[in-house]
Write a structure and sequence with these properties.
286 residues, alpha+beta, Lipocalin, eight-stranded antiparallel β-barrel, three-stranded antiparallel sheet, 34% helix
């Protein structure tokens, strides 16, 4: 998942480009916005109908873009671009709009971690993160997910989330021991982000689904599946809860927790709960 460090609308009400878009990035921003303006104006129009799109007037200051539908500002503009387009299908217009937004996000916003890179120690895991755009983006995403989880956890007693996060940071920093430090850090972020999203219901979920095991109604496992990356499941058995991550499987869907496994295929599941425990044969309730 691509990080998003930008917030707010693409342009402010004054017509200014958001701070941080300067020089070459400002040109990219203007071009992408022109594409968005043109295609949005044509979405919903009759097939083959053309529309004259008043685009953006670029003023001499490289950090300001103002819209002028009349184009009546002589001696103030550097360039003025117009696009007359006829569109056959509305779907193609929407696709270009989506790509344009992705272009802006990818080109104009530099990835940055949530901490101050000027204060990190040389040779530390934080320094490695600062010098890697993808890891920096993951750290930014972690900060946003942790903030959302903190909001959901405000009524938890005892409050354990912050202590857990400090423990996770310590574990992440232990990646200096790994033969592949970068992959260790990346995986640490991915698993923790997915854990928080599942535990605090921050992403779309399927379920809960109840499974009756070994033909006994008292042996019921309740599972909820989350669209995280990697995919996760939260399973409940009695008074215990297990967070599981999806694993590769030859058939069906398999999740692995600390000492629990869940392997489901066509409404039937093989579940183990606890180290060395026997396998349970379970059926989803209809």
């Amino acid at each position: 998942m691509p990080p998003s460090h930008a917030s707010g609308p693409l342009m402010t009400q004054s017509g200014r480009v958001p701070r941080g878009c300067r020089g070459h990035y400002a040109e990219i921003y203007a071009t992408a916005l022109n594409m968005i303006s043109a295609h949005l104006d044509n979405v919903g129009r009759d097939y083959g109908r053309c529309s004259v799109i008043p685009l953006l007037t670029v003023l001499p200051s490289d950090d300001m873009f103002t819209s002028d539908s009349r184009g009546t500002r002589p001696n103030q503009f550097l360039t003025r671009m117009r696009m007359n387009n006829c569109f056959i299908r509305t779907a193609s217009s929407l696709a270009v709009v989506a790509l344009s937004f992705a272009w802006i996000a990818g080109a104009a916003v530099a990835a940055a971690p949530s901490f101050d890179c000027s204060k990190v120690e040389a040779g530390s895991i934080e320094e490695l993160i600062c010098h890697d755009d993808q890891l920096s983006a993951l750290d930014g995403k972690m900060a946003a997910v942790f903030a959302a989880a903190t909001d959901k956890a405000s009524n938890e007693h005892p409050p354990v989330l912050k202590a857990e996060q400090r423990g996770w940071i310590k574990g992440r920093n232990d990646c200096w021991k790994s033969d592949n430090k970068r992959r260790c850090i990346e995986q640490s972020y991915e698993l923790r982000i997915a854990e928080l999203q599942a535990r605090y219901r921050l992403v779309q979920a399927t379920g809960p689904v109840s499974y009756v095991c070994d033909g006994r109604s008292a042996k019921e496992v309740i599972a909820t599946f989350f669209q995280t990356e990697p995919p996760t499941a939260v399973a409940e058995f009695g008074d215990q809860t297990s967070l599981m991550y999806r694993q590769a499987a030859a058939s069906g869907t398999k999740y692995q927790g600390r000492n629990e496994t869940f392997w489901e295929h066509d409404g039937e599941a093989l579940i183990t709960w606890g180290y060395g425990s026997p396998e349970m044969h379970c059926q989803a309730k209809r």
